[in-house]
Specification:
The chain is built from no helices and 14 strands. Strands 10, 11, 12, 13 and 14 form a five-stranded antiparallel β-sheet that branches. Strands 1-2-3 form a three-stranded antiparallel β-sheet, with no helix packed on it.
């Protein structure tokens, strides 16, 4: 009776998650109702998605407060034609774009010459990033998955727990939960070794 799900031995108690919406009380905007917008994307807890924008090489994408995605600019490969979904976060790259919808699924659209659009992994994600010919996602388990072009090892992801990810042309960096970063892939001038920056200044 004190569990959110009496059939699941791993279920949290109602004292930890009062409204049983999958978010602990300290991370929830409202402990009495099932919050429809993830608090990570609703900073003022008003029930609306934080408006945001992402710029690609020749196009841009933005999310409205209602979670509607709009893109403009070059649409040669369909990178400015997002699907009709409610999004929480977007990432625009060179010829493609990706977004995390309200259920945590990733959608990508546009150029698919390396599988950066069609090879999207299943699962629940909290963030997506995009580079030149590849994409990366950060799951709710705080694990990174990347797909698409791996010429410079940009989709050869490290095994660790992360809280944030950023991708650029041929490389990505992810932030550790305790601070510091790990990067992989290559800069435009050549390969780089996997780089770990363990500086406590980054949180």
């Amino acid at each position: 009776a004190d569990d959110c799900d009496d059939t699941d031995p791993l279920s949290v108690s109602i004292f930890e998650d009062a409204d049983c919406d999958g978010r602990l009380n300290e991370d929830d905007c409202n402990d009495t109702i099932d919050q429809q917008v993830d608090p990570r994307y609703d900073s003022d807890c008003d029930g609306l998605v934080d408006a945001s924008i992402s710029n690609g090489y020749t196009h841009s994408c933005a999310i409205t407060w209602e979670g509607k995605a709009y893109c403009w600019g070059d649409d040669q490969f369909g990178q400015s034609s997002p699907p009709d979904e409610q999004f929480l976060q977007l990432a625009a790259a060179d010829g493609h774009s990706c977004g995390v919808d309200n259920s945590g699924a990733i959608h990508c659209w546009g150029l698919d010459n390396f599988g950066q659009v069609s090879d999207v992994p299943s699962g629940t994600f909290i963030q997506v990033s995009a580079g030149y010919g590849f994409s990366c996602g950060l799951s709710t388990e705080q694990e990174v998955s990347c797909w698409g072009d791996n010429t410079y090892n940009q989709t050869s992801t490290p095994t660790a727990t992360f809280t944030e990810i950023y991708s650029s042309d041929y490389w990505s960096c992810a932030r550790f939960e305790g601070g510091g970063f790990e990067c992989w892939g290559a800069f435009a001038t050549g390969f780089i070794e996997t780089l770990e920056i363990d500086l406590g200044l980054f949180y």
